[in-house]
Amino acid sequence: MGETGVSTIDTFGVLPAGVNAAVALSYLHRVLAAIETENRSTKALISLTESEAEEDLERVLSARHSGSPLPLDGRFFVVKNNIDVGGVPGTLGSEHFSHRIPEHDADVVQKFREAGAILVGVANMHELAFGATSENAYFGTVQNPWDITRNAGGSSGGSAVAVALGWVDFSLGTDTGGSVRCPAAIEGVSGLRPTFDEVSAHGVYPLAPSFDTVGLFSRTAVDLELLLDIAVGVESRHGTVGPTPLRIGIPTGGYFTEGVGSGAAQALMDMGRVLERSGAATLVDFDLPDAKRSDYVSRMIVRAEAWRVHGVGFEEDSSGFGADVASRLQLAKSIDSAEEASLSDERVELTKKIDDIFEYVDVILLPTVPRAPSLLGPVDPLKSTEQNLAFTYLWGLAGLPALSVPCGFDDGMPIGAQLISRRGSDRMLCRLGAHYQELTNWHLRRPSGFGALHNSSSNE
What we know:
By secondary structure, this protein is of the alpha/beta class. It has helices at about 20-40, 50-65, 105-115, 155-165, 180-185, 220-230, 260-275, 290-315, 325-335, 335-355, 380-390, 395, 425-440; strands spanning about 45-50, 75-80, 120-125, 170-175, 190-195, 215-220, 245-250, 280-285, 365, 400-410, 415-420.
């Protein structure tokens, strides 16, 4: 298998070479105005960051003028609103935190801005990052641009929608139990949950600290590798996937086939065959008998940690929390210290069983989300979250990296494939995803429902 190539990250954010400051500023303001107009319908952003964008633009132009353009050279991005931007309300998507204003940028935000990215907004989210539909009573529900009657996934729904609609070249989210991978799949973009603790979480408001991971969205997997390098502060090391063919495990029964829609199941098999025919993979049967228990233990530990983070504030004044999150916190409160200790012990045992899988497979291939997202309104967000994260939660138990890439459509809705591997295999996953995207075009399709800034294809 050949080189995956070097990213361009060129959705639309690059300013033409040689433009003067006035032209560049005018271009930036036109983009911000267009995003603001579309955001009235989508609710993907909580606010624009015009002054920060102007500051970033000045940095980009100064670097160009000096003859040393910055690595990202004016690409646009947004960050989920639980990732700090100095001087901008960091609300966590909650009325309770609506007046919280961080003093400084999170480490990861600072790295991207210093690398020449232009921050244009902060993204809407499921309140507290504690849910997977991005329904939000205070800031408005993030709209799914493929079908506004269905949930957008979450909790990083706004970050995913901003990329799907072409507003930005990439975005930042957080992934505790699937909050990057789930909306990436539902919105038809690429999303990476890095190995736990690979990217600094300094300046990121926690939900469950032993699971929380800063994640990345872009249109392509090759872009995600470049973005990961910037996020962790290392030189880009683009190249081949590695020793091939990789042993890719696909489930043939058990937990990972339960409730999977026929379209998702077929798309997954088709993806496996594409990789196998290319010489990149050998397909092998895969199962994890303790998968259901691992999912349960993951969810319970996250609840217990979420209560430690938010319980005091909730008990002091619950009025600033939406009903959905309030019900989750009430459930979290019921987990006592003895149960949490037992869960932590079990986590060690289950992590060992998960790690043992990689003795006979190199990569696990699963649907990111088992079936099309549920309808808004009639379906309880708690149940929708359980469905959306059924195949994503447990990998955080072991701190594994996981990548979601588009692999097909079912009744007009994107299907995402999740690639999971050993800790530290983030770049291999990105390269495997990039190789698949060289052979297919699912990642190039965009929703047409909102008249996106760069609507180059439809969902047909």
